[in-house]
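A protein record in our archive is deliberately plain, so that people and models can read it alike. The tokens are whole numbers drawn from a learned vocabulary of local backbone shapes. For reference, a complete record is included directly beneath this paragraph.
>
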Amino acid sequence: MMTRATILAEARTIFARQGYAETSLREIAEAVGIKTPSLYAHFPSKEALYAEVYAGVSVDHTAFFDELLRRSSELEPLARLHHILGGIEAYYRDRPDLAEFSLRAAVTEYGPGGEQLRQIFLDSESTLATAVRQTYEDGVAAGTFAAGDAEGFTALVFVVMDGLFLQLTHYTPEIYRERFDQAWRHLSTILSR
């Protein structure tokens, strides 16, 4: 029996492979084994289907990082930051379709829904931002990080995470690991007092 979850899974795979603009509802319907009009019983438009796929990816990403943050909360600040940054590789290593989907989503506009999608992503990022700020504050309190600007520190971590994601999607695991280790050595030296 065809379910909404099946449609979403197939749509995510096809959107990841081809992108939003190049994907038709007909292709998704064929992949699911139904006729295109049957998709409209579940989703009013391709944009609505994409938005739900995007939201689902964001929920999965948030759940993973929430668990990673929970597991690392007792680590000393520098080790905690390393664990957070390492989450990029840990998350996408076993989810190559999500890496491809997320890469396409990051660089492509989707018409009128684009602003809504950006807001979904920003909302999903808020717990992570809070944890990064807390890591910074804990590091300052412990004397590990120089006192300064918590918002700037958080922005730096997000920019590094975005860069790590691009490195992960463009290079072999060996090159990624080498670059991650080199960047971490440099960043940890800069951050440590």
